[in-house]
Design brief:
Length: about 475
């Protein structure tokens, strides 16, 4: 760099929360298929260009945020988050959930349609959800709609209003205001969604006669596990793959916990089904054999299964049979977890992990030979594609939103209650040592989180999805 150019470029190391950044420099920027020193130039909230240091002197004027050797990669897109506002804001809310997201390097969340009251199952309810979220989001936020019995005529208006897609349950959802659908409802919904380019998400568990009754000691995790056997997922996914192949509407299996249906999934895709699959951090990091008696903070549905199953999930991730990893952040108040009684059969089923997804993934994935590029594919790029946000989120390329997570993949830390930013601090990860610490999170060129501090005001915005409408099949 010449003396003349030093007058125009000032390198700074201070990431003041709330500040706007015009360029970010690091020795480790994840560019395409390589990690190299680079400067990311930002203009009007977008990535304008990605330059080498030698190019910077000729093109960049102004302050450059220098983050040293910290890794810069696209912000995480977590497309499975239960925020629960309005209606159950004591469980979680936009202010707390999106701060937790920002602290974990998540720059975009997609909020699930249930556990809030009202659920996002009508256009009117969607507008109520938007009103509740306005002025409260520290990261960008999109929204799923829901399919329940009798709401088929609400689906297209919600697509036009910008929901990312729709979720349904094939089994009781856990809340009465979001009932599960029948085969008749599914066919009606599929017909409505044909030609919209939208996607239908499935909680893939189905009641089966083979399921074991909830007998045995309710304080033992094994009792709960026996009540939700793999066959419930297998039979649900059999139904889903048949529907997907028949209607050719995009379908997505949320939180796959069992490896048993993977062969069905592979066969359906080979036959041309537009089907995608996610799993979660808890299925990849927690094992049934090590869950203590009465430790109801580990309960979720579908359940956490054994170590052998977990390794098959990792193999499926590596092979591309599972497309993405999400949090399925599903918090509640501590009393609903039945901590005093330790009764697994009565406790609410949901795990809080929104803030720790990147670190949870990297702690386990790095030991199995996964790369930073795998992390971007599974945590950023593919979730953005699912939501039709891949034209602006999930990749470090010019024209995309300037959304970055700046983190130290080598740094270890322990999950402490004082550091948790979601509303209710209960999580099975308390006390766990993790590898990969987030230093700062930038959303559209603005620092929303830096070293434990947040911007004074929420800087996120609502995202409305423009689906690529296609001719009806």
């Amino acid at each position: 760099m010449t003396e003349a150019h030093l007058d125009y470029i000032r390198y700074i190391a201070d990431m003041e929360p709330g500040s706007t950044v015009s360029a970010v420099r690091s020795q480790r920027v994840l560019c395409g298929e390589e990690i190299r020193p680079a400067v990311i130039v930002i203009k009007e909230e977008k990535i304008n260009s990605i330059l080498s240091d030698s190019e910077t002197s000729a093109h960049t004027v102004g302050e450059v945020l220098d983050v040293g050797n910290s890794l810069v990669m696209p912000g995480i897109v977590d497309c499975h988050v239960h925020v629960n506002e309005p209606g159950r804001t004591t469980w979680e809310g936009y202010w707390t959930a999106t701060r937790a997201a920002a602290a974990g390097g998540v720059t975009t969340i997609v909020d699930m349609p249930l556990n809030s009251i009202p659920p996002t199952t009508t256009l009117r309810n969607f507008n109520e959800k938007l009103h509740a979220a306005t002025g409260q989001c520290f990261v960008d936020t999109a929204f799923w709609g829901g399919v329940i019995p009798g709401n088929k005529l609400e689906l297209r208006p919600m697509v036009q209003a910008g929901v990312a897609g729709f979720k349904c349950f094939l089994i009781h959802s856990g809340v009465d205001e979001f009932p599960h659908v029948s085969n008749v409802d599914l066919h009606a919904a599929m017909k409505q969604l044909q030609g919209t380019g939208s996607v239908l998400l499935f909680h893939a568990e189905q009641e089966v006669q083979h399921a074991v009754a909830e007998n045995g000691d309710p304080h033992e995790y094994s009792t709960f596990l026996r009540s939700r056997p793999d066959i419930m997922e297998l039979e649900a996914i059999r139904t889903i793959t048949q529907l997907c192949l028949h209607y050719r509407v995009r379908c997505h299996i949320v939180h796959l916990s069992s490896a048993q249906p993977l062969e069905l999934i592979r066969a359906a895709r080979k036959a041309g089904a537009p089907l995608t699959v996610e799993t979660t951090h808890h299925y990849l990091n927690l094992c049934a054999e090590t869950i203590p008696a009465r430790a109801t903070q580990f309960k979720c549905c579908p359940p956490i299964r054994d170590t052998a199953n977990q390794e098959l999930l990792w193999s499926a991730l590596n092979a591309g049979d599972i497309d993405m990893v999400v949090s399925d952040h599903s918090p509640c108040t501590p009393d609903l977890k039945c901590l005093d009684s330790g009764n697994f059969t009565q406790a609410w089923g949901g795990i809080s992990s929104l803030q720790f997804g990147l670190s949870l993934f990297w702690t386990s994935a790095s030991k199995r030979g996964f790369s930073f590029f795998d992390a971007v594919r599974l945590l950023c790029k593919h979730p953005a594609q699912l939501c039709r946000l891949d034209n602006q989120k999930g990749s470090l390329i010019p024209g995309h939103d300037a959304d970055f997570v700046i983190w130290d993949p080598e740094k270890e830390f322990t999950v402490n209650e004082d550091d948790i930013h979601h509303k209710n601090k209960l999580t099975p990860y308390l006390g766990l040592a993790l590898q990969g610490k987030v230093k700062a999170t930038i959303v559209r060129g603005k620092v929303v989180y830096s070293d434990g501090s947040f911007s004074s005001q929420p800087l996120g915005k609502h995202l409305f999805i423009q689906h690529n409408t296609q001719a009806a099949l």
